[in-house]
Amino acid sequence: MLKDITLGQYYQTESVIHRLDPRVKLLGTILYFVSLFLFNNPVGYAIATIFLATVIIMSRVPFSFMIRGMRTIVILMLITVLINLFVTQGDVVLSFWKLKITKQGIILAVQLALRITLLIIGSSIMTLTTTPNHLTDGLEKGLRFLKVIKVPVHEIAMMMSISLRFIPILLEETDRIMKAQLARGADLESGNLFKRIKAMVPILVPLFISAFRRAGDLANAMEARCYHGGEGRTKMKPLKYKSRDAIAYLILAAYMVVSIYLGRLSLFKIM
User: Fold this and answer.
1) Please, is 20 exposed, middle or buried when counting C-beta atoms within 10 Å of its C-beta (0-12, 13-18, 19+)?
2) What are phi and psi of 21, to 5 degrees?
């Protein structure tokens, strides 16, 4: 289960998406998220799916690897879908006991499932095609206008980069601790909910100790190298826009125009 989490992982390959400026990918991801809430019709969802599928093909990241991250949120998605399926009021389609399934509930549940799936896969593309260093540089340079109001952009970007970098490390550490506890005879799967929670204590305690130790070692290493924030620091490979980035911005602008138009379109509306 832990190996199915793809957040923070980078997939090394050669593609157009990998070569794009990280600022383009950050803005593109945000705009794609926004677009999913602009329309309410099947044509809009079809265009969003086709757009995402095209980006996946261009990224050359195996689709099987990309959807691995979906397995960890299946239960959460099912709970959300079921709640909306039975709670939404409207035209009753099926009724049993005290539960009623309505037409509006089915439509809303399908919409939520589609949006969550597209959101997760869309965010995975950004992390799988962008290294943490490039992501930090893109975030810092893209938000540098906030320095006018004294927002510590470099520090925020650095924290984000360190967090993404530590996710795979902590997952690997958790897997190692679990295997060590199972080898000592620990039972992590049987029993009721409270027993399972109690069984997680021998895993969480050494995991937190390891995480704090790693954080302390990193802080000491940064202090030993006289790290004092982003003031006066230079980049070995400064970010520069290229022609492919301009083309990507034009494609994003066209996609957003279509999404806004579909959001205003009353024809083909689901509800």
Assistant:
1) buried
2) -65, 135
CA distance 96 to 173: 47
Which is more confidently placed, 182 or 228?
A: 182
Angle between helices 201-224 and 153-183 in degrees, nearest 10: 140
Residues constituting the chain? 271
Check if the beta carbon of residue 262 is closer than 8 Å to that of residue 47: yes
Residue 8, pLDDT score: 59
Burial code (b: 16+ CB inside 10 Å, e: under 16) for 130-157 equals bbbebbbbbbbbbbeeeeeeeeebbeeb
Cα 143 from Cα 158, distance rounded (Å): 13
Q: Which long-range contacts (CB under 8 A, 24 or more apart) does 136-144 make?
A: 136/160, 136/161, 137/22, 137/235, 137/239, 138/21, 138/22, 138/23, 138/25, 138/26, 138/239, 139/22, 139/26, 140/230, 141/23, 141/239, 142/23, 142/26, 142/27
Determine how β-strand 99-102 pairs with β-strand 92-96: antiparallel
- Alpha-carbon gap, residue 84 to 86, rounded angstroms: 6
- DSSP string for 169-238: HHHHHHHHHHHHHHHTT---SSS-HHHHHHHTHHHHHHHHHHHHHHHHHHHHHHHHTT---STT---SS-
CB atoms within 10 A of CB 198: 11
Strand segments, DSSP code E, in 35-194 are 92-96, 99-102
- Tens digits of per-residue pLDDT, 211-259? 888 888 888 888 888 777 666 666 777 788 889 999 999 999 999 988 8
